[in-house]
Amino acid sequence: MHVIYGGTFDPVHHGHLRLALEISDRLGVEYVSLVPCHIPPHRGQTGASSGQRLALLRLAVANEPQLRIDDRELAREGASYTADTLRQLRAELGPREPLVMVVGTDAFAGFDPNVVAEWGEPEVQRLLANPGIIRHRGKIEATISNARVWQDIEARQGFDRFLWDYVEGRPLQTRFASQGEVPPQTPLSTRISKDLKKAGFRFCGPTIVYAFMEAVGMVNDHVLHCPCHAPVAALADA
Predict the structure, then answer these.
(1) Which whole-number Å values give the CA distances from 121 to 21, 64, 152, in the listed order?
(2) 60 and 113 both lie in a single domain
(3) Using CA atoms, how far apart are residues 147 and 103, in angstroms rounded to an integer?
(4) How many domains does the chain have?
(5) Of these four, 16, 43, 155, 159, which has the most CB atoms within 10 Å of its CB?
């Protein structure tokens, strides 16, 4: 089985890495290939150049044997289309090797909660027929109900304030030397998970919550050699 995870990685962050590592573990594959795109056709110009994004990605996966970089899209001229990459990979792998692509948020309207909250059974049926996502009715329905819970918290106190109050408005700081030292969950993520479930959220265990905390900057888990560690640490003193 060959697994690819594509994106702009602008810049790569721990949320990307955690997802790829968990996919590798769950599917039992030796590695997941990260495929940075050259020119994304679906969005505006990236903040960093292709070369800069590739350099940061190489630093991020340097000590992770389960993560590899496939830079084929950076070598192609023009916009990066996944269809071209999949056709090229299929030709290389042959007709029998399973080819798995990790997809993003397009199926869920960019996870805009105000849009998703209005969905009902027709959208559930549409998503259950989408081969590009995990077609689990319970998780699809939870995404819709979670959006409605988000709306309730947003109207009552603001969802960002709800979350950032747990860290007193400042990113928590860590000093890990390698990705292997980063925990999958913490006592705080467990506490937040319980509070979210009490509010009505589903499928929000402490590991998922911790990955979310890393992705939104509530905790600085950039390893010490990562060029993003110091700038994020400085935010705590801003």
Answers:
(1) 33, 41, 21
(2) no
(3) 20
(4) 3
(5) 16
Angle between helices 187-199 and 137-156 (to 10 degrees): 90
Tokens representing 43 are 């969005």
pLDDT of amino acid 16: 84
Instruction: Please tell me whether residues 79 and 63 are part of one structural domain.
Output: yes
Q: Tell me how many degrees the CA angle 31-16-232 measures, rounded to the nearest 5.
A: 135
Local mean pLDDT, 10-residue blocks, the chain (238 residues) = 89 83 88 92 80 94 94 90 88 89 70 92 83 79 97 96 95 90 94 98 94 90 86 80
121 & 180 share domain? no
Contacts (Cβ under 8 Å, ≥6 apart) of 78: 38, 39
What tokens does 167 get? 């860290």
